[in-house]
């Protein structure tokens, strides 16, 4: 590859990386920040900065090894990591002083030493590599490799306003090429700024991965139902549920964070959704008062996010064993308490964007074997894996209440 390289791009990448690794800031926010600092950049330059920054975040441990840096802190250190990433991908580097003695030969020599060190090669903390091996056995290696790739961009057509066929045509007029892959899902085959399109502003689609689009349809909702989305967040799945309910029936979106529900309200307005009400879970009473009110319940619970590392690669550096234990305890509590909101004869979907059985199958098994789960049976479950279906790692289980 012989891309033209500019010092200003490396400056922007290094600035984003310093904030991500030294201050613990989110990668997507930092990339937006540095891109906003120079609005004159064209789309290729913006894409270069975003892609290289994500590349370094994804491959941080490997790049520290290749660039022979124990603990990068300075601006030059992050230039050097980015340089090592480009060399590793076959790009020649200019002789800028920040790169120091980096050379293709040395990077190749260092690369040859990691064949038997998966955690370094795939850039993952040792504790996570051990956990993945313990949880997924032989599947872990392929999952890890797939999670280090760039995520495909998938849209969900908002059927309240358009159809996949009409949306494909409307987006093509704005030079965005898409392919209908399933139900409401379109795969974007040419990356562009989707949020600037007329179709987005008019609420004709939402960005939502293929795997995540499997949760709402699994609830088998209809326009007569009362549906509760109990961990609704900013409402990706609530909006999907509203469309499947044809904007009828009653949809109640709950979350412990009111600011997320405020964001959901804005998105609902854009999407033309009007069967939805939001309510913050400010005390345990909110859930108690809803005992046996719902025909359908979605529990898209907080999780490790290990299935969506392609999209949020910085999460692997922020996650820690204590957080994982806490979130597992919280998931079990949510399943046991919130399931009481379902009427006899109703249905519930328990979902996570994790690939770990401890957050998925084990939680469902435990629930079914305890007092809270005595009226419940498992109808089906599936773990979507990035190396199998090709999209985010995701778990969906469907449970029926007798
Ligand atoms: C995986 S996210 C939900 C994503 C959302 N369903 C979507 O499709 O966009 C999990 C959500 O659970 C919320 N949450 C955390 N603890 C909770 C609790 N105890 N009860 C309800 N929601 C909770 C978080 O604030 C977060 O928004």
Automatic annotation (TrEMBL):
It is an enzyme of class 2 (transferase). Residues 143-402 form the SAM-dependent MTase RsmB/NOP-type domain. S-adenosyl-L-methionine binds at residues 255, 300. The keyword Translocase does not apply. One of its GO terms (biological process) is methylation. The keyword Hydrolase does not apply. Its EC number is 2.1.1.176. It comes from Neolewinella antarctica. InterPro entries: MeTrfase_RsmB-F_NOP2_cat, MeTrfase_RsmB-F_NOP2_dom, RCMT, RsmB-like_ferredoxin, SAM-dependent_MTases_sf. It comes from the Bacteria. The active site is at 353 (nucleophile). Keywords: Methyltransferase, RNA-binding, S-adenosyl-L-methionine, Transferase. Belongs to the class I-like SAM-binding methyltransferase superfamily. RsmB/NOP family. GO terms for molecular function: methyltransferase activity. This is 16S rRNA (Cytosine967-C5)-methyltransferase.
């Amino acid at each position: 590859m012989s891309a033209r390289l500019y010092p200003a791009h490396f400056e922007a990448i290094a600035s984003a990386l310093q904030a991500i690794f030294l201050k613990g800031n989110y990668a997507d926010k930092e990339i937006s920040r540095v891109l906003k600092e120079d609005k004159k950049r064209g789309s290729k330059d913006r894409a270069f900065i975003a892609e290289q920054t994500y590349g370094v975040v994804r491959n941080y441990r490997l790049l520290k090894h290749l660039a022979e840096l124990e603990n990068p802190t300075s601006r030059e250190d992050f230039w050097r990591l980015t340089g090592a990433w480009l060399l590793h991908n076959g790009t020649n580097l200019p002789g800028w002083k920040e790169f120091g003695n980096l050379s293709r030969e040395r990077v190749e020599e260092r690369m040859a030493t990691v064949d038997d060190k998966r955690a370094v090669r795939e850039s993952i903390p040792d504790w996570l590599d051990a956990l993945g091996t313990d949880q997924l056995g032989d599947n872990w290696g392929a999952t890890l490799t797939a999670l280090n790739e760039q995520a495909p961009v998938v849209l969900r057509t908002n059927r309240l306003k358009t159809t996949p066929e009409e949306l494909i045509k409307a987006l093509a007029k704005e030079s965005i090429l898409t392919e209908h892959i399933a139900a409401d899902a379109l795969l974007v085959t040419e990356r562009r700024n989707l949020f600037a399109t007329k179709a987005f502003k008019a609420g004709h689609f939402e960005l939502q991965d293929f795997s995540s689009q499997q949760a709402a349809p699994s609830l088998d909702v209809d326009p007569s139902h009362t549906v509760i989305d109990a961990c609704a967040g900013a409402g990706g799945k609530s909006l999907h549920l509203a469309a499947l309910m044809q904007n009828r029936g009653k949809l109640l979106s709950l979350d412990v964070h009111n600011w997320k529900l405020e964001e959901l309200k804005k998105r609902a307005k854009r999407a033309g959704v009007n069967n939805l009400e939001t309510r913050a879970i400010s005390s345990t009473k909110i859930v108690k008062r809803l005992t046996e009110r719902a025909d359908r319940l979605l529990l898209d619970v907080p999780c490790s996010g290990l299935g969506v590392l392609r999209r949020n690669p910085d999460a692997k550096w922020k996650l820690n064993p204590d957080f994982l234990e806490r979130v597992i305890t919280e998931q079990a509590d949510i399943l046991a308490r919130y399931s009481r909101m379902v009427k006899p004869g109703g249905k519930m979907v328990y979902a996570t964007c994790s690939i770990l059985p401890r957050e998925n199958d084990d939680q469902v098994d435990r629930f079914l074997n305890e007092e809270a789960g005595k009226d419940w049976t498992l109808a089906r479950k599936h773990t979507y894996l990035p190396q199998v279906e090709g999209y985010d790692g995701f778990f969906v289980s469907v449970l029926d209440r007798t």
